[in-house]
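Sanity check

After download, print the first record. It should look like this:
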Amino acid sequence: MTLCLDAHWIYRGSGNSAVAVFDILRLYGSRITELHLRQSKDGVWTETMGEGDIDYVELAEYLLSIGVKPHIVLEQAAEQGTPKTMGTVQAFRRSSRYTRDVFAKFAD
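Expected structure tokens:
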């Protein structure tokens, strides 16, 4: 059985706990075949992927350390409080750049 890990819904579903995200990684990381990425700051979805409530750099490093290179799905979402400072395409470009940088070693 494999796992599609939606890191942010685990974060939200556990009361905004990044610790819970990493607990799931440690328990079931070897089963992860797909990884959904979304970010927030102070619990509110951000306009783009970047630094925030979930440490995706640490998450990527952990997955690589156990030899797991899942299919990555980059998601954009907005809710009340999400900044709106750029268009959708520009936000996607920034998010893609950040994600490529963080997960670059997955392509090796």
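If your output differs, re-run the checksum step. Summary of this record's structure: The first strand starts at residue 3 and ends at 6.
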